[in-house]
Structures are given as C-alpha cells and as structure tokens.
Amino acid sequence: MTKQVENAATTESMISSPPTGFQVIMREFKKDKLAMFSLIVLVVLILGIFIASAFIDKEQMMRISLRDKYAPPGDDFILGADHGGRSIMEQLILGAKNSILIAITITFITGIVGLVIGLITGYFGGFIDNLFMRIIDFFMTLPTIMIIIVFVTIIPKYNVTTFILILSIFLWIGTARLIRSKSLTESRRDYVSASKTMGTRNSVIIFKEIMPNLSSIIIIEMTLNFAGNVGIETALSFLGFGLPPSTPSLGTLVNYAINPEVLSTKLWIWAPASLLILVLMLGINYVGQALRRSADVRQRLG
User: Fold this and answer.
1) Does residue 129 sit within a domain?
2) What's the pLDDT band for 64 if we cut at 50, 70, 90?
3) DSSP 276
4) Structural domain total, the chain
5) What average pLDDT does range 129-145 have in this prediction?
6) Residue 5 has pLDDT above 50, yes or no
7) Residue 252 domain-assigned?
8) Which residue did the predictor score with more confidence, 296 or 49?
9) Mean pLDDT of 77-104
10) Does the residue 166 lie in any domain?
C-alpha cells in the first residue's frame, strides 16, 4: 500500500513539474533519428580531426616535393598529393581544424557581443535602444562581403587573428537583433516588474533572470551561426580572400578546382574537402533544426 502511494506521488510530481530544457532536447533528438545520427557524426568527426591534427607536422607537410606532383591516392598518399607534392590528407585534416577553430572563435566573439547588446537594448529601450538600432541599421546597409574583401586586401601583415577580427566586426548584427526582440518581450513580464519593485539591480535582472529564459534561443542561434561562419570562412578562402596561403583551409583546398584540368581529371585534390564541407553543413543544419523544435516545445511548456 505504501509503495502504491509513493508511486502515485511520483507520477503526480512528474506530471505537475515541466521537463527541464535538457530533457526536452533529448526527447527531440530521440524522436528525430537523423538529427541524432548527425550529432554523433559531428562529434566523432570533429574529435577525430582535432586528435589527428596533433600528430601532423605542419612545416613538414608544407614542404614542396615536385617528384610527387599530383600523385594519385596510394600507399604514399592516402588521398593523393597536390601540385606541390603535399599530402591532401594532411592538408584536409589541418584545414578542417583551422576552419572549425576560426568558426568557433568568430561564433563566440559575435555571440557575446550580440548577446550583451541585444539584452541591454531590449531591457532599457529608449535612447540606448534607438542608438544601437541605428548603428545596426547602418551595418545592415553595407555590402558586408565586399567590405571584408577590401579589408583583407589592404591590411598589412594579414594573419588568422586579423581575419577573425575583421569577420567579427560585421557578424554580430543578426544575433543582436534576435536577442533584442526576445529581450523586449521578456522585460515586460511580471517577474521583471517584481524584481524592479524589490530593488534588484538592472545587471542582475538582465544576466541572471532574463538571459537564462533565453538560453534555448541563444543555443540555437550559436549553432546556426557556427554553420554560417564555417561557410563564410571557406567561401572567402575559396575566392582567395580568406586565410593566408601558408595556412591550410577547406576553402583553399576547394580553390584548386578553379583549374579546369584539376576539376575534371584530379578529383582527389578538391573532392574530399567539398564532401567534408557538405557533411558539416548538413550535420549542423539537422542538429540546429532539432534544437529549434526543442526551444519551441520548451516555450509552449513555459
């Protein structure tokens, strides 16, 4: 009898208490087998890339060996060699690592900047909101990609750090607009008014009360921004305005396909990088869709 009462109490508590954010996310991934498969593939792929890159000597890899020019896949080169006799496999691993690290860094910087600006403008409104929104509107009218290309061209001593900073200057706008719109709604809820009445500091209300309620949206935005930043980095590197030539990248490997002979007869040079970019983009997209559905479910459940 006692056990039945305990089971009934447990069942009642499970029904009355809404599931946590993690439980909602796991439920969505279990329902969407493709998203779960994509998540596993992404984790295994990224971990494999970072572990394998630790065993590659970049200076040795970048040495030119004309004897191995355009060597096809075989025992000496698993994925063949490029026009300089350099291993495509090693360039693919280091290039993927560089592209992923750059995308993560840009996502982190732009996420922090966009989050802070969005929360502050959405919470305070008024003059602060109008000021930042005019700045954001100005940035949105600019041809971002063209300006990035101009910066890359004219800046002396151009390196990876410079490339990250240039992209970060322009890529925080979308995050700021999204967080601002959500923060405007949250700042008008009863719990915010109650906190103000109790004399709680604005910084505490913004970062300890409003921001946790936007956690699902923030995670989704960061995930999708990561995919977009990988695409932007590889696209600019493909066009020749990305990373320096001495730094391997997925975009620089795909850039070899500009040569008609390489494009048609030497698929091993550019195809692996293209397939890896495709897998990364699709995987991140499916994971992002599952996270978006999780946020919608969490919002409906309150």
Assistant:
1) yes
2) confident
3) H
4) 1
5) 85
6) no
7) yes
8) 49
9) 86
10) yes
What letter would DSSP give residue 258? G
User: What residues form DSSP beta bridges with 170?
Assistant: none
- pLDDT confidence tier of residue 298, bands split at 50, 70 and 90: low
pTM for the model: 0.82
* Residue 39's CATH number: 1.10.3720.10
Would you list the DSSP string of 171-224?
TTHHHHHHHHHHHHHHTTSHHHHHHHHTT--HHHIIIIIIHHHTHHHHHHHHHH
Note whether residue 13 is domain-resident.
no
Q: What value does the mean pLDDT take over residues 148-157?
A: 80
Q: Counting Cβ atoms within 10 Å, is residue 81 exposed (0-12), middle (13-18) or buried (19+)?
A: buried
CA-nearest of 75, 39, 95, 83 to 272 is 95
Please give the residue range of the domain that contains residue 148: 24-301
Q: Are 243 and 160 in contact (CB under 8 A)?
A: yes
User: Mapping DSSP to helix (H, G, I), strand (E, B) and coil, where does residue 87 land?
Assistant: strand
pLDDT at residue 272 in the model = 87
Distance, CA of 115 to chain centre: 15
* Residue 81: closest CA among 247, 266, 251: 266
Joined tokens for residue 210: 């409003």
Angle at 282 between CA 276 and CA 283, to 5 degrees: 85
| Distant-in-sequence, close-in-space partners of 51: CB < 8 Å, separation ≥ 6 | none
Give, as one character, the DSSP assignment of residue 81. Answer: B
Which residues are within 8 A (CB) of 78 and not within 5 positions of it... i.e. 6 or more apart?
87, 89
DSSP state of 64: -
